[in-house]
Every structure is written in C-alpha cells, then in structure tokens.
Amino acid sequence: MPGTDANEPEILLQLLDDVPEPAYAHPGDAGADLVTRVDVVIAPGERVTVPTGVAIALPDGYAAFVHPRSGLAARHGLTIVNAPGTVDAGYRGEISVTLLNTDATEPVSLTRGDRVAQLVVQRVARARFVRAQTLPGSHRGSGGFGSSGGWTAAGA
C-alpha cells in the first residue's frame, strides 16, 4: 500500500489542473507517471515543452528526475531533450517536460491526460568541493567517451 513504508519520503503535491496525479503503474516501479495537460502535435525533429499540471515540494536532501517513457521512445521516437530533467527541492513551480520527436517522418500527437514522462524521486547529497593540485590515481584515469570499449565501428 503506497505511503505506508517508513522509508518513503512524503512529497507534498499540488494539482494545478484537473489531471491525474503522479502514480506508479506497477508495484516496484521507480518512476511515477506524469501526464500532459494540453493537446499537442510534435512534428518530426520538433521539440515542445508541455505542462503537467503538477507542482511538488520535495524534502531537503531529495531531488526528482524527469525521465522519458520507454514505450513512447520505442514506438514513436519521443524523448526528453534534457533527460533526465532535474526538479530541485526548492522548486515550487509547475513541472514541465520538454519533449523531442526524433522520428524523421511522423508527427507525434498527444492528448491531454496522456502519460509523457516518469518522475523518479531520489535522495541526493550536497558535495563540498575541495581544490587540489592533483587528483589521486584510479583504474580508469582520465579515459571517457567510449574509452571502455563495447562497440567497434567498421574500419576502426
């Protein structure tokens, strides 16, 4: 039963429109579904920011991350431009989602109430940044952007 686990943070929720509140579709899901509160058609290659009708108050030490929905990505090429979008604990405005249609030929039509993203709430730590002349060594070192392999292009 939701809300009965002592480890679940309590998130204050304000509905700004008559839309479904964020909800988990299945037990064990990490993300609660967010919906669009407007009808929109997103042309191929176009991006649009849609409002969700939801504002939240996160406890200090938490952030919420807005993730794409895998089904929309797989079936329609719809993703989130700044995935994951970050909702900071101090933000009290409406959560909006900037969607991008990556399909080269087909527009994506969304209707008010369609699920467009998932909201994942996580505990986050604030860091204290300390300047150093050098950094300690590590197995990886400064390798990045594909340095661990996993994919070989033809002729590479």
What does this structure look like?
The protein has 156 residues and is mainly beta. The protein has one domain: Deoxyuridine 5'-Triphosphate Nucleotidohydrolase, Chain A (Distorted Sandwich). The chain has one helix and eleven strands. A four-stranded antiparallel sheet has the order 2-11-6-8, with no helix packed on it. The chain is globular and about 55 Å long. The model has no long low-confidence stretch (mean pLDDT 91).
SSE map:
Layout (H helix, E strand, L loop, with lengths): L11 E4 L16 E4 L4 E3 L4 E5 L2 E4 L4 E6 L2 H7 L1 E3 L4 E3 L8 E6 L6 E3 L4 E9 L33
Antiparallel strand pairs: 1-5, 2-11, 3-10, 4-9, 6-8, 6-11, 7-9
Strand order of the largest sheet: 2-11-6-8
**CA-to-CA gap between the ends?**
53 Å
Helices, by number, come to 1
The helical percent reads: under 10%
| CATH C-level label | Mainly Beta
Low-confidence stretches: none
Overall mean confidence score, pLDDT: 91
The CATH architecture name reads Distorted Sandwich
Rg from C-alpha positions? Answer: 19 Å
Strands, total number: 11
SSE succession: EEEEEEHEEEEE
Biggest sheet descriptor: 4 strands, antiparallel
Total count of domains:
1
What is the CATH topology classification name?
Deoxyuridine 5'-Triphosphate Nucleotidohydrolase, Chain A
The CATH fourth-level homologous superfamily: Deoxyuridine triphosphatase (dUTPase)
Structural class by sheet pairing and helices: mainly beta
Strand portion, in percent?
A: 25-35%
Task: Categorize the overall geometry.
Answer: globular
